[in-house]
Amino acid sequence: MIRYILSSVVTFTILLFCTPGVRAQFTEPVDSSQSQVLPSPGKSGRYFIPDIPSKWLKWSEFDGKAFSFKIGFAPIVDYTWNGQDNESREQVGDQESKIDLRSGRVTFSGKFKFSNPLKYFLSVEYKGFDRSPEDPIFGVTDLYLSIYLNKFMGSVTAGKIKETFVYEMVGDAANLPNTERILNPFFQSRSIGVKFANTFYEDRMTFAIGAFNDWFTKDISFEDNGTQFTARLTGLPVYDEKGKKYLHIGASSRYNQAAKGLLRYRGRNESNIGPFYVDTKDIPADHSWSVGLEALWNYRNFSLLSEYVQSWVSSYDHSNPTFNGFYFTGSWVISGEQRPYDKKVAYARRVMPTGGSGAWEIVARYSRLDLDDKQIRGGLLNKLYFGLNWWATQHWRVSLGYGLGTLDKLDLKGTTNTIITRIQWIY
């Protein structure tokens, strides 16, 4: 039944893409990986760190009568140092310290200018924020078409896209104050499917729903792969001082059918080069149901961000275990800038410096993953993170962070100290 429903939705979406009769202002939310409005760099017009002159990149954009395109780039390079005690080595093995080309993303985006414009987006990258070290080196991260229907239905997007679940995942990780996500055990970053999204109440609220099943990219049938359904609802109960003061709240949900009758939750120590610190292994199950709560409060150059996710597993022989994770993040931009809020995607974007010396941001975060319940002993990970971000220009970011991870697993309590440095250039 689910297969026929999803197939009908995809067919309906394709027909909508091919039908030019829907006339409306094209306001489909901008993908979070794309550029934002750039402020002036101050009186001098220059930054301490020279950036690539915009005139050198004019070749990467075109806006014609029939279509437009823009090429974007996102190279990110890390160096991660790990220091472990004996208990940690016994739990997860020796963690090496090394340089990592964290991401080498190239994006292609634009519109086909029919009477109702059709938006397209493609990103290809070397590794990436959401690809495991054991996965192929190169891959297509995003590939979708999107069209605005009307003010009541909003936009419909089909292809390889992000699921509409968890604040950390909805936006681009390069915009986050911390360097890595923590709630990875509870979502799949990209899947093939369809989503509907819209804003309402004067752009003070958003909703997004989606259905996903990427069976044909795997050697597995539609039924055996399992289908995911996600939904996210957000609101801005406070938004004044021209966006310098706002309160964002949201709730999301994810229904995940087990692939081949198995579910698995696993997560790293906020590191791309390390193994999975918490891991439930395969759980014989029918499905899981997850609920997420999110809140972001911003007052000028101060912000607090927090999320909580709880997941219930309908298992066959493990008494229906429950897992959860959460984090609290505090940010202070010393130089006075703030993270601008994008109402279309219900997400705060990256800091854009206005002074020649760039913007400096201090970050503190506490996070926790609990994958222990009933007979499942996936581990309990607590993590402290302290970081300094230098948003050197409107494109360059340099970060230095220290993390202290404590893992309760295998009747041991292991500690990992991590120092991560990052250089990224986003265009």
Write a structural description.
The protein has helices at residues 2-17, 86-92, 167-170, 222-225; strands at 61-63, 67-84, 98-112, 118-127, 138-150, 154-162, 190-200, 205-212, 228-240, 245-257, 262-263, 266-268, 276-279, 283-299, 302-315, 322-333, 341-342, 347-348, 359-373, 376-391, 396-409, 412-425. The chain is mainly beta and 427 residues long. The strands form three sheets. The protein has a 16-stranded antiparallel β-barrel with strand order 2-3-4-5-6-7-8-9-10-14-15-16-19-20-21-22. A two-stranded antiparallel sheet has the order 12-13. Strand 14 (283-299) and strand 15 form a beta hairpin. It is globular, with a radius of gyration of 22 Å. 42% of the residues are buried. The model is unreliable at 1-35 (pLDDT under 50).
Compose a concise summary of this entry.
The protein has 427 residues and is mainly beta. The protein contains four helices and 22 strands. It has a 16-stranded antiparallel β-barrel with strand order 2-3-4-5-6-7-8-9-10-14-15-16-19-20-21-22. Strands 12-13 form a two-stranded antiparallel sheet. Strands 17-18 form a two-stranded antiparallel ribbon.
Task: Jot down its keywords.
7% helix, Porin, two-stranded antiparallel ribbon
- Identify the CATH class: Mainly Beta
Q: Mean pLDDT score, rounded?
A: 87
Could you tell me the CATH topology label: Porin
| E-strand count | 22
**Regions with little confidence, pLDDT below 50 for 5+ residues:** 1-35
Topology pattern, helix = H, strand = E: HEEHEEEEHEEHEEEEEEEEEEEEEE
Based on Cα principal axes, name the global outline: globular
Sheet bearing the most strands, described?
A: 16 strands, antiparallel, barrel
CATH architecture: Beta Barrel
Q: Classify the helix fraction into a percent range.
A: under 10%
Number of helices: 4
**Rg over CA atoms:** 22 Å
Cα end-to-end separation: 43 Å
Q: Write the CATH homologous superfamily.
A: Porin
Give the domain tally. Answer: 1
- The SS-based structural class is mainly beta
